[in-house]
Amino acid sequence: MNALTAGGALLLCACLTGLAARFCTAATMFWLLLIEATPEFWLSPDPAIHEDILGLIKAAGLAMALILVIRHGAKPDRYNPAFAFVFMFGAGLAHGLYPDLTFTGSFRSLLGSIAPFAFGYAKLPKDFCRAIIRTTMFGPLFAVAAGCVLQLAGLHTLYDTGSGTFRLTAGGEGPFLGGFALIAIYAGLMEFFATGQSRDFWLIAVNFLILILTGARAPLALAVFAGAAACLIPNPNFAARGKLGLLAAAGALASLAFMFSGALGFVRIIGLAQSGDVANLSHRDLIWPYFQAAIHTSPWFGWGLGAGKVIIPVTSPLSLQLGTNAAHNEYLRVGAEGGVIGLALLAALMAAWAWRGSRPLPSPQRWLMRLIFIAFALHSWTDNTLIATTSSILFIWVAAVFATAAEPPKPPT
To answer: Cβ of 45: how many Cβ atoms within 10 Å?
Structure first.
């Protein structure tokens, strides 16, 4: 029976691989939408199974990147941040892994860490890139629609009221949906900068509304930062009149929210502002000392990729009390896993990758993309931006934008 099951699984994988190879664009779009539907939350309540599902999703991403390389060719993405994770993996093995971290666990973390950046090594066709960009922009809407279906089916609640306020969760949790909405806003701003079309503006507005309803604080602040930056960057497709209109609309909405704040207190972000309790809701001050201690004991090369998952065991009282053992700070997590050298290498590669990849873009988009990377660096101080599934969405979108910008213009006919 086990042999038959294994054979069936292999046959299914072979069939899916063949379909993905034949329909690359559709398969990758499906993969992106699957990520945004967050099946790890509604397929099983077991956290261990969550990890297995996420592993399969990231493995599917690596397989899609490999298929694209085979079909369209590879490119030497010399500043790709994946190189930093390969270095940290090797350095961890040479130095010695953190207690309770196995080679298999470290290697699995290596695959999970490089998966979001794998598409940077493929020559991506223009039509493929356009489809990925549009899917990124519509992803949160799909996630909410999927959440409605799951709510009707009784598989997952569309919203959470456990804290006494309303928080839109769709098929997963508020922070994940908020992260997807933030990336969709980034993508929408880049498109609006390029085209100036009103449809992109209204899609940005819808994603901003979704972001507000998720109650995700850091993504909301970064969305406001990106919007303000968009108003300051000179752009012929976004004239001064349009910028003044956007600022006026934002001011009017803020005034209305202030005037009716008493009635809108059920919205999480407004309720938190009223109570003054807007910081440290994830109890980061209890988690960070463990990672700081790990860095202190091995400051230069860290304890190997994957150490962040075992520094605080999932069975520890703290992890059970908080419901997580994640660092909520990528600088501390990467510092514990790769040391100061690994962290510095990752930061340098990320900066070089953003600078070089955005260089062919028109000036307004170029500077907006670089500001988005700065926003990502800020976001990494309070959230798990590199290990969460949001990173797969963000960096395939970045790879698509870079590939579109790098494509040489067609000669006149």
So the answer is: 8
Q: What is the DSSP code string of 344-390?
A: HHHHHHHHHHHHHHHTTS-HHHHHHHHHHHHHHHHHTTTS-TTTSTH
Residue 55: beta bridge partners? none
The DSSP symbol for 23 reads S
CA pair distance 225, 218, nearest whole angstrom: 10
More confident residue, 337 or 316: 337
- What digits encode the pLDDT tens for the residues 99-142? 989 999 999 999 999 999 999 999 999 999 999 999 999 999 99
Q: How far is CA 111 from CA 56, 92, 105, 123, 263, in A?
A: 11, 15, 10, 21, 47
The Cα–Cα gap between 212 and 206 comes to: 10
Do 148 and 39 contact (CB within 8 A), yes or no?
no
Q: Scan for tokens 């909301």, then name that residue.
A: 220
The span from the CA of 71 to the CA of 320, in Å, is 46
Structure tokens at 292: 């700081």
Tokens standing for residue 33: 């939408």
Query: Phi then psi for 296, rounded to 5 degrees?
Result: -65, -35
**Of 116, 114, 161, 16, nearest to 395 (Cα)?**
116
- Tell me the C-alpha distance between 146 and 70, whole Å: 33
DSSP letter string, 109-131: HHHHHHGGGGGGGB---HHHHHH
φ, ψ of residue 269 in degrees (nearest 5): -65, -35
CA atoms of 25 and 65, how far apart (whole Å): 11
Quickly state the pLDDT bin for 160 (edges 50, 70, 90): confident
Tell whether the torsion through CA atoms of 396, 399, 401 and 407 is positive or negative. negative
- Nearest-angstrom CA–CA distance, 256 and 253: 5
Give the least confident one: 73-87, 155-169, 176-190, 226-240. 226-240
- Measured in whole angstroms, the distance separating CA 336 from the mean position of its chain's CA atoms is 21
- Whether 178 contacts 137, CB under 8 Å: no
Q: Indicate whether 271 pLDDT > 90.
A: no
> Cβ atoms within 10 A of the Cβ of 239, count?
12
**Mean pLDDT, range 249-272, rounded to an integer:** 55
